[in-house]
Amino acid sequence: MINSLKNYTRDRVLSALLSLAANSSDETMIRMTRLMEIIPKKDYYRERIRWIRGLIRDKHPAIEVPRRILGELHPNHREKWIKNLLVNHLVNGTNSRKEWSEKNGYYPPSTIVISPTMRCNLSCYGCYSGDYPRSSELTLDEIDSILMQMKEMGVYFAVISGGEPFFMEGIFEIFRKHDDMAFLVFTHGGLIDERTTEKLVEAGNVMPAFSLEGYEKETDERRGSGHFRKVMHAMDILKNAGLSFCGSFTHSRNNSEIITDPAFIDMLLEKGVFALWLFSYVPVGRKPDTALMPTPEQRDALRRSIAGFRSTKPMLFIDFWNDGPLISGCLAGGRKYFHINANGDIEPCVFCHFAADNIRNSTIHQALSSPLFRKIRGKQGEHENLLTPCMLIDHPGAGREFFTSEGVYPTHEGAGTIFTCMADEMDDYSERYGKLATAVWDEEFCNHPSKAGKRESGR
């Protein structure tokens, strides 16, 4: 009876949200936040919904993103994102994740990254996944099992990476079968054509994220001649079809000036980009090279630039390293997410190429509650400065400790290079950035506690 009442409430809220979805006025979006506030049990999520309502009232630029979703997207795509991401994952899923934590002793991650295949037709220098065997591939049954296990935890959002995911035969079967989930797919964009776009429109629950290094010169230099134009063409096709998509940018020493330039962000907005994922180059994978890492000064300049963009540009920005203060530090080890590679290894992070478990001999629950993952989550709370969250580039000693833990193995040949041959270079980088980050933390965050993420397990 209680579960039936819960579902009745959820279904009524969903029905009301969908009935409002075609209108993007401030009044409509405020009504939608009030409806969403009915379902979550956790105060934290209700507070975040009220915070969003305040942004709408203040006419903050970030509110233009949901307004674009309501006003620009194909009806099927819009409906799936409201149903799957907002209701199933962000609103109703929080209750399921809370129930899981009470039963199993840890709060499940917010998402999972799956690399179903390592096949790719590019050979980008510095590719983080470039040293995995390209023949590695999960079966459709294995992917299906992974997603079923995540939904049991209340997780209805999954990130698909690779390799190039659209080389995976049957990937759209997965999207259709898990019609109640939302998928973010990192792609180089070269396989997106009119036929693939038709499949994306039909599925409705998939958002591609296109990898760029800058403009044509920088992108083609890393990804091959003509690739930038392929991505621009793919963006045009998706925009004309009413589909949302993201950009993905690897911040390096060579392209730092581009990603901190408002003109580049404006170019992406004109193409129709809804969100931008920012990753600093990490010396793992194909021919790791610390000379490609952004300098400490460039890393902080990106942080400051993104803060400015968030207050002026109608786009979402996700800065994987600099957003520590917003999300209370490191995401890895199942705190917020983890990675399953194409060989089935359950890794703490897409950049941490080691594991203690594999899906072919372990459940995800067993991996998340394993000594390795618990050890990582325990260490994450030890660092007060949330500008230095990473076990690879900010606390390399911790990374080496995890890598050499009992039962842990490298997930491809050369995976331990960052912990062995490059140990001195990583220690030097962490020391240099640490000095800068300490000064910034003391000046900007310690004196303004509201800027620092409040540590809370299970958000």
Compact description:
The protein has 459 residues and is of the alpha/beta class. It is built from 18 helices and eleven strands.
Describe the 3D structure.
The protein has helices at 2-20, 26-36, 43-57, 64-72, 75-104, 140-152, 171-177, 194-203, 216-223, 227-240, 256-259, 262-271, 296-310, 324-327, 364-368, 371-380, 396-403, 423-445; strands spanning 112-114, 157-160, 182-187, 206-212, 246-251, 275-280, 316-319, 339-340, 346-347, 354-355, 409-410. It is α/β, with parallel strands linked by helices and 459 residues long. The strands form two sheets. A nine-stranded mixed beta sheet has the order 7-6-5-4-3-2-1-8-9. Helix 1 packs antiparallel against helix 5 and helix 2 (26-36) runs antiparallel to helix 3. The relative contact order is 0.10. Residues 455-459 have low confidence and may be disordered.
